[in-house]
Amino acid sequence: MTIVVRPIDPSRHLAFLDADGGRADASFLQTPAWGRVKSDWRSESIGFFRESGDSGTPDGELIGVGLVLLRKVPRLKRWFAYLPEGPVLDWAGDDVTDALKALTKFLRRRGAFAIRIGPTVVARRWGTDTVKAAIADDGVRSLTAVPPDEHDPAAARLHHTLRHLGWKPPKDAAGFAAGQPKFNFWLPLKGRSADDVLKGMNQLWRRNIKKAAKLGVEVSEGGPDDLGEFHRIYVETAERDGFTPRALSYFQNMFAAMREEDPGRVRLYLARHEGDLVAATLWVRVGRHAWYSYGASTSDKREVRGSNAIQWRMITDAIDAGCEIYDLRGITDSVAGDDPHLGLIQFKVGTGGEAVEYPGEWDLPINPILHKAFDWYMNRGK
């Protein structure tokens, strides 16, 4: 049997993601709609086919898909090929080596000078109690120094395979300003009711959810016309937390592209207290996986706990949608008391979830000279 990679229609790409009630391991960054969101990149849907005489289909069995984002080198017809949190493959299966070779062959012919992938197999997990203990221990500065509660041998095999085939992790998980987080925080939902999830939260979270309800915080779904309100307090959040905000047009494009693909793909939530907007978030779902994608809150009225109320609404809606994972997205591995990001992991661990580690993003420099030059070009001025 042979694995080949070919372009596929976006509808076939989506059908693969939606098969059997929807996948739990496919990122929203690997949907065709994401290619329209990242309009400054060229994008293409691809399929991985296992060809054999008894596949039952003329072009072979479709065993994986991917969204490839392509960025052109100035003045050259050469491309950097990026599959954020992808491709979507069975990373524990027997076809990984052949699939990676087929991907390389396909993109080399497309003129790629380098490829970046981000497998979403979970390499290690640290449960709530383990994370809390690490935070409380002054002698521990990183989760990586703490034995995980679970580790997946498939991720170790994948690491060995990637090294053997010439793939390399980007230095310090940086480069091209395109990277996705290696460490994320998940709240497992499979087989759990809202009451069960609430009982698993810490006392502070339960108290804040109850307090928000008592004080009259109301959470509602918004539409495209409400994105301006979201963006107003998102910019306020950026100024307070010291990051560069995206333009309103980015969110308008994201909302339109994802809703056109699937009306239930993205939702805007707005938390108000006595008519005042106090928090707003974007929620994204693919199959049985939901994400807290973007969030914003005001400096005023923080005592009404709008952020807890809006998170609880997103969590319960994820349960109602049949999701197995509510993904609070990126964290750092640091649990040091003097780390400015410690508050973020403390907020997330209060949900009763777990820290998970992906293998990280890996580069294959097909043309090492162009790869190095492009890295410099994308990171100039940092």
From TrEMBL:
It comes from the Bacteria. Keywords: Acyltransferase, Cell shape, Cell wall biogenesis/degradation, Peptidoglycan synthesis, Transferase. One of its GO terms (molecular function) is aminoacyltransferase activity. Pfam families: FemAB. Gene3D superfamilies: 3.40.630.30. InterPro entries: Acyl_CoA_acyltransferase, FEMABX, PG_Glycine_Bridge_Synth. The keyword Transferase applies. The keyword Nucleotide-binding does not apply. One of its GO terms (biological process) is peptidoglycan biosynthetic process. Belongs to the FemABX family. This is Lipid II:glycine glycyltransferase (Peptidoglycan interpeptide bridge formation enzyme). The lineage of its organism: Bacteria, Bacillati, Actinomycetota, Actinomycetes, Propionibacteriales.
